[in-house]
Amino acid sequence: MAEQQQKKYSKPLPHIDEENRPWWEALQRHELYVQRCRDCGATRYYPRALCTQCLSERTEWVRCAGRGKVYTYTVTYQNQAAGFRESLPYVMAYVELDEGVKMLTNLVDCRPEDVKIGMPVEVVYEDVTPEVTLAKFRPAR
Amino acid sequence: MSLSRKAAVVGAYEHPTRFAPDKSMFQIMAESVRGALKDAGLTIKDVDGLCTAGIGMSGMGIVGFCDYMNLTPNFVDSTSIGGSSFVAHTAHAAAAVAAGLCSVCVVVYGSTAASSRFAIGTGGAGGGGDPCDQYEIPFGPTTVGSYAMVAQRHMHDYGTTSEQLAEIAVTMRLHASMNPAAKYREPITAEDVLASRIISSPLHLLDCCIISDGGGALVVTSAERARDLRKKPVYILGTGETVRHVADGHRDFLEIAAAQSGRLAFERAGVTHKDIDLAMIYDSFTITVLATLENLGFCKRGEGGAFVQGGRLRFDGDLPCNTDGGGLSSNHPGMRGIFLVIEAAKQLRGECGPRQVKDCDVALVHGTGGTLGTRHSGATLILSNQ
Ligand SMILES: [Zn+2]
Description:
The complex is a heterodimer of chains A (141) and B (386).
Chain A: H1 2-8, H2 21-28, E1 33-37, E2 43-44, E3 59-63, E4 67-76, E5 90-97, E6 102-107, E7 120-127, E8 133-139
Antiparallel strand pairs in A: 1-2, 1-3, 4-5, 4-7, 5-6, 7-8
Chain B: E1 7-14, H1 25-40, E2 49-52, H2 61-69, E3 75-77, H3 85-98, E4 104-111, H4 143-158, H5 162-177, H6 190-195, E5 198-200, E6 203-204, E7 214-222, H7 223-226, E8 234-244, H8 257-269, E9 278-281, H9 286-296, H10 304-307, H11 326-330, H12 337-348, E10 362-370, E11 376-384
Parallel strand pairs in B: 2-3, 2-4, 9-10
Antiparallel strand pairs in B: 1-7, 1-8, 4-7, 5-6, 8-11, 10-11
Helix pairs in contact in B: 3-12, 5-9, 8-9
The structure holds zinc ion.
C-alpha cells in the first residue's frame, strides 16, 4: 500500500536529514513548529541548528497555532515539472504565520480566483508519502 | 583604496547568434572571446585573467574552458550568482587588474539554452539540494512564479497595474526593433501583452524574457593600458554586489538586492542619479525592471508603476533603459548579465546607430540573478566614457 502511494506521488520530495528530521516528524504528527533562540529570542523558519543572529545552538521549538494570512501568492498555469504539470493551475503562496514568519506553501480547498492577499488561512496537513507530510493552507473556517 | 577609474572595459562583443544547434557552448564562448579581443585590438596571448560561469557548465567549468582555450591565466573567477554573475565578474576583473593580479582579464558567457531546450522559467526551480530548497520544492516553485509573487504584492500594496508592467515590455520591443540582432523585432502594444496567456499570475507570457542561444565577452584592463588601445575606454567608476533571501522568514520581498548594491555603486562612483544617461537593468520579467528601478532609487518605493509610463524608459526618454531590447525581446540565453555591460559599453562609445542615446556619458548596469521571491543576487556597475 505504501509502495503504491509512493509511486503515485510524483512531485519532488524534501531531503530529510538529521538537522531537520524533528521538524518533518512533527509534521507527520500534524504539528507545525518554528524555532526560537533560547539566548537571543530570535524566531526563524525554516529549521536550522544555529541561530543566525547569535549563532547559539540553544533552540526552543515553538508550536504554531497553524493560522496566518496570505502575504502574497501566484496562480501557476505553466510548469513542465513532473507532478505539477498534471495539477495546473495551482496556487503557490507565502503565508505569514501568527508566529511572525513567512512560509512558502500551497493554498488548497479554494478556487484560485478567490485568493486574496491578507486572507486568513489555516493549516491543513497533507500526508503525501509515509515519510513526508506537507503543511498546506486553506481559507480559515 | 578607491577602484574608481583604475580599470576600463576596452573590448565588448555580443555574439550575433540567437539559435545555434550547430555550435557547442564552448565554441560560442571562444568565438565571443575572439570578437571582444578583436574589438580591443588585443590577442589571446595578452589574456592573463578569465571570468566565467554558466548554467550549462559544471561547477569547475572555468577550468574546462581554460583547457578548451589552452589558457593558463594568473587570475580566475567563477563566481556563480545567477544571471548577474557577469556584472559581478566585470567588477572583480577591475579589482584584480587594479590590484595587479592580472593585466588583461576576459569575462565571457555562452549558452545553447534554446537549442538544448532548457526549461528555464517554468521547469520547476531547483531540484535544489541546498537546505533552503527543501522547504520550497514540494510546492511547485518556478522562476516565473517567484517573480510573480513579488509583482502580486507590489500590485496589492501600491495599486501597480498589469498595464504599467506591460509598458516595460512594449518599450523593450521598440528597442529590439532597432537592433538587427534581436530575436523578436515586431513591435507590440500593451494590449498584446495583456492578451498573451498568463504563465503565473499576474505575469503574462509577454511579461517574461525569451529563451535564446547566445554569448558575449568583455575585455577589462588598466586605465593606463586602455589609453593606447583601439577603442575609447569605458571606465569602471563604481561597483556593488550583495544577495537577498528569505531572511529566517522575515523578508520584505519588495526590498531587493539592488537597494544595497546600488547604494554602494553610487557611493563608490561619486555620481548621483541625475548623472545617469542610460540604465541597463536585468529584465528577466517586467516586474524585475520596476522593482530594480525603485530599489536603485530612481523613484520611490511604490512609484515604479507611474515611473515607467509615458515613454520614460525609451531610448529617447528621460531614463533610457535596455536599448538593445533586453531579455524581453533581444536575447536571453539562460543568463544575460554580460549583455547589459556590452550594450552599456557600446552606448558609451556611441556605436548604437538608430538606437543610440544622445550624449550618453554615464551608464548604470544592474544584474539580478536567481529569483526575487526566494533568493537572488544583485550586482551594480557604474561606467563612463570619461
Ligand atoms: Zn540567537
